[in-house]
Structure formats: C-alpha cells, structure tokens
Amino acid sequence: MDALDIALASVRVESALVGRSMVEAPWGLRMDTGDLCVLVAVVRDEAWVRHGDGAPVHLEEGTVAVACGGVPVEMGDHPDTPPEVRIVDQEDCYDTVTGENVAGRDRTGARTWGDPDASGSVILSAYRAHGEVFTLLERDLPPLLVVPPDPLVAPVLAALAAETQVDRPGGQVVVDRLMELLLFASIRAWLASSAAAAVPSWSTALADPMVGPALSAMHADPARRWTVADLAAEAAVSRAAFARRFRERVGEPPLAHLTRWRMALAADALRAEPGLDLTAVAARVGYADAFSFSTAFRRVRGQTPSQHRRSA
C-alpha cells in the first residue's frame, strides 16, 4: 500500500448525519453539529458555502466540498442569504428566527426535506472519521477542500443522493459506507487537481519528482533509522537541496515529518491492537526500546502511549 492507502484504510465513518434538502431561492442552512468533518455537495443547481469565518465559495452543480476542523459551515443560494435553519443533528434542526425545532417539517423521504419539485438540491453531511494516520492527512489539507464536478466522484454522489430518498433496512450502514467512498473519491480528485500543487502537504508532495521518492521510502519503512542524507539519496540530490525542497513542499523538515508519521502509525496500532506491548510498537516505528518511544510519543502527542490506549 502507498501512503494514501495507509491513511484511508483506517477510516471508518460511523452514524453519519446525512440530509438532502430540496431548495428554492432564497434559502440558507447552517451545519452546527460540532463534528470534525462536514461534507456538502450540490446535486442540482448551484450554491455558496462558507467555512467558519472564511470567504464564501461558489459551488456549481456536481461540486463537493469537504470542511475540516469542527467549525460551523453555512450554505445558501447567495453569500448574503442568512441561514433559515440551524442543523445540530438529525432530530434537532432549529428555525434561526423562532427557535422552533423543525426537524420533522417538510420531510419527504428517509433523509430528504423540502419540495420535491424545487429547482435546487443539496446534500449536507457531518461525520467523525477514525484513524490517526487519516487525521495526519486531514490536518495537512486546506480547511475547505473544493472538488469541481469529477467523473469518478459523480457516481458516488448520485448513489448517496438516491439513498436519501428511500427508507430500507440497513440504511444507516449504507449511508456510512457511501460517505466513506465519497470522502475518498473527493480527496483523490482534489489531490490530482492543479489546486493541490499550491498546498504544502505530504499528500500533495508525493507527486513531486524530488520529494516524492523520499516520502514514499520513509512511509513504506518507518522502522528504518533514516537520516536526511539517506532520504536525499532516495531522491538522488544533494542533502541541502533535498532539505530545502522538502520543507517547501511538505511544510516541515524531513525528520520532523518522519516523527509525526511514526507517531500516527503507533497511535493507530495502540488502539487497534490492545494486546501489542510497547516494545513491539516501538520496534515497528523505529525506536530501540519502549522508553525512548514513550518519550517521543508524549512529546509529539501530549500523552503517554498507555494514556492514549486507555482513551480508546
């Protein structure tokens, strides 16, 4: 598996809040669930989205936007249209003027609200995705990741839109798996776009001819005692040129990224394999003993490996 495979493999979306709104201008919605991830998509017509205090972004039909960070996301027909409904969860959606709970109002399907004949159709979803390596990827992505209409994303979006209109046994599990697919497809499409090249991140630097080979090598063999000289050799350039280019493309020095990668792998192992002792985890991520590993883990993550394991 490559590094992106590793980051995505541990993701499991559970109990995702997914709703489809059939809308007619003027309209406005606010996602205020507190979840770390919010995904919005325009199934029909167009919309504007604002992430926290950021500038409004226009979304054409078929566009998907992924927002990270747990801050509110607003969506509407125009940047100046105030939200009419504040969405907290599936059963708690409030009129922003009266404060009335309107979750049951205008429901026309299992997860669909509004007039079926409305000209606009949007999907809003909030979810938590587990996996420390995925968190490492997510942290390096822009706060609002916008994916224009893409032929590999469109079929997943269509399947999710269809699922919002039916009420069949197992619906929540199907929605969760479709959300995973839509998230994966959106991230992959964005990484392949020209917009990604301007963002310093290990995920975007994988395609860099100088940095990519070194990144792939350290991700594939985190237990090796890498030096900057070793990594520069993987890239077939001088140590100084490699270190400079790595910082430009990834946003941090090579060995700092290696430590972050190792700690994310270790954090996932501690939770996924409770019977694995610290010495084995340490060896897996390149530390000679449990003591040196525990010291590094606490420095990077702010808690000991045992505390992290108990918190799971």
Task: Describe the fold and architecture.
The structure is a single chain. The protein is built from 12 helices and 13 strands. The two termini are 25 Å apart. A hairpin with a 5-residue loop joins β4 (47-51) and β5. It has 312 residues and is of the alpha+beta class.
Average pLDDT, rounded to a whole number, is: 91
Helix/strand-derived category reads alpha+beta
Low-confidence stretches: none
SSE run: HEEEEEEEEEEEEHEHHHHHHHHHH
Query: Per DSSP, what share of the residues sits in E-state strands of 2 or more residues?
Result: 15-25%
Number of strands: 13
The biggest beta sheet reads: 7 strands, mixed
Q: Separation of termini?
A: 25 Å
Query: Radius of gyration, rounded?
Result: 22 Å
Helix content: 40-55%
Global morphology: globular
Gist of the model:
This protein is an alpha+beta fold. Helices cover 40% and strands 20% of the residues.
Notable traits:
globular, 312 residues
Which SSEs are present, and which pair or pack?
Layout lengths: L2 H7 L7 E7 L4 E4 L5 E8 L2 E5 L5 E3 L4 E5 L4 E4 L8 E5 L2 E4 L11 E3 L2 E3 L5 E8 L4 H8 L4 E4 L6 H10 L7 H21 L10 H4 L5 H10 L7 H8 L3 H12 L3 H19 L5 H7 L5 H12 L3 H7 L1
Parallel strand pairs: 1-11, 2-8
Antiparallel strand pairs: 1-12, 2-7, 3-6, 3-12, 4-5, 4-7, 6-13, 8-9, 10-11
Helix pairs in contact: 1-2, 2-9, 3-4, 6-7, 7-8, 9-11, 10-11
